[in-house]
Design goal:
The complex is a heterodimer of chains A (482) and B (96). With 482 residues, chain A is α+β, with helices and mostly antiparallel strands. The longest helix of chain A has 20 residues. In chain A, 39% of the residues lie in helices and 19% in strands. Chain A is built from 15 helices and 17 strands. Chain B is of the alpha+beta class and 96 residues long. Chain B has a domain of 37 residues. Helix content of chain B is 36%, strand content 9%. Chain B has a two-stranded antiparallel sheet. The longest helix of chain B has 19 residues. Chain B is flat, with a radius of gyration of 22 Å. The mean pLDDT of chain B is 89. Classes of the chains: A alpha+beta (482), B alpha+beta (96). Chains A and B meet through strand 3, helix 1, strand 10 and strand 17 of A and helix 1, strand 1, helix 3 and strand 3 of B. Strand 10 of chain A pairs antiparallel with strand 3 of chain B.
Chain lengths: 482, 96
Amino acid sequence: MSKLEGKTWTWETVIGLEIHAQITTKSKLFSGASTKFGALPNTQVTLVDVAMPGMLPVLNEMAVEQIVRTGLAINAEINLYSVFDRKNYFYPDLPQGYQISQFSDPIVGKGEIEIKMDDGEKRGVGITRIHLEQDAGKSIHDMDPSFTYVDLNRSGVPLMEIVSEPDLRSSAEAAAYVRKIRAILQYIGSCDGNMERGNLRCDVNVSVRRKGDPLGTRCEIKNVNSIRFLKQAIDYEANRQLNIIENGDKVTQETRLFDSVTGKTRSMRSKEEAHDYRYFPDPDLLPLQLKKSYVDRLSAELPELPDQKLLRFVNELGLSLDVAEEFVFEKEKADYFEPIATGRDAKLVANMVRKDVFGYANFHSINISDVPVTPQKYGELIDLIVEGDINNRIASEIFILMAKTGKDAEVIVQEKGLRQLSDTNELEVVIEKVIEVSEKQVAQYKNGNQKIIGWFVGQIMQKTKGQANPKVVNALLRKKLN
Amino acid sequence: MLVDKSTVLHIANLAKIEVPDGDLENLASELSHILGWVEQLNEVNTDDVIPMCSGVASMQLRLRQDKISEENQQSDVLSNAPDSRDGFFAVPKVLE
């Protein structure tokens, strides 16, 4: 939904996003506690993380490196001088009473990424800034009727907040933007992009206006943690605001929550005091000063980025743009596909892994990295096709057996006698038999029905249990029939 | 006065401090005097001066390596909490 049709006007949705991405590190932003997911409550908490008096934060150099690399990957300015500030608010899962963040001097300044917009054109989306901050702990409200339970394992985990300009005009564009950012983070390894675990989550600012008018009043939808929900939330919110305006009322600026069950957004209980954050420079931390040589080194060491890989998949490997985009923006797919395609027929590999491997992962609802057949082993299966030992259909059956038994392709071919029949003499016998009993079809062919050849191939495949080499069969068949 | 009664009340709310109504007037006056005294700093021209965020401008921020240097210390962490259950801090219900 890119256009918002009102009663009398066509309206425009304006969207800006704040993405919170957990930075991939072993330890927390300011303490030596582990960041590992899924630990028992409060087992990865140091006295710094619970804000015991006298404890001092010491900055994790890896978190700095990762955010600088992220900035470089989106062509942003890297600020060699940045400052940590305290953002003050009161909540049980924030033991310090403030979050250490960056306000006036963030580490990464203005940048830009390109996405494909609704009209098919590629355009830049401005990124305002990226700054470092601590995550809060987790409050659990449904474990006890009269208590809230607090787990501080997440308290102090490093986050980067990526703030965009209000450059997006539809839910589809917002989704494309998040996909692109997620892919970039995954490619450089600064965040795993796992939205289900909340390692990447968005706050979405939505407003509507008549095209050409100044920006309307916006509402912020908090903590959206899937791309599907992001689209639903934006579409619902834009329509809600449009209805308010068309009924002659005014949109109130507020923070809203998306309810994934109803597909609606609703107002959070108003916290008038909540936005008085009283930022000030954290006296426990000196300003962060980076050397230009350090930034240059990280820039030179950046790996291949999604846009570069896309170009290479299309230009060098000959994949269609659609397939290349599917692989590149779902990194797991590119990771599986690439080692197999290297040195092989990339188009054949692409077709086969999509059908077999990605189909298998989808059917079993597992990650592609958890498919029991490794890229190396799948490559050996492809080699059997290329060498003419098996055809594509048999290959797919062998793949299922490989996944089930853990055996190599070659072993399964031997055991089951699945090697393709390419032997001309053997095939000729089968073909002659089929022709003998198919007078009607032969007559049709002689009368010019070329399509009937497919029927003959089918018959021969049946007689050979699918093992006949289709190329050889086709050639022999035409020779015999003519 | 730089600080009025309602501002004192606002600050008290933010700091989660209960201030009796009778003290508001006096506090507003005291805070105003303190701010007035600090205001003198505005007389200095600081147009071309970069804000100094700490008193030790000559020192560099120290960074640490990304290593897990501390293990599980759940019992220590929870030992000062007024209430804890099943390894969690337990606080009065936050939502109504």
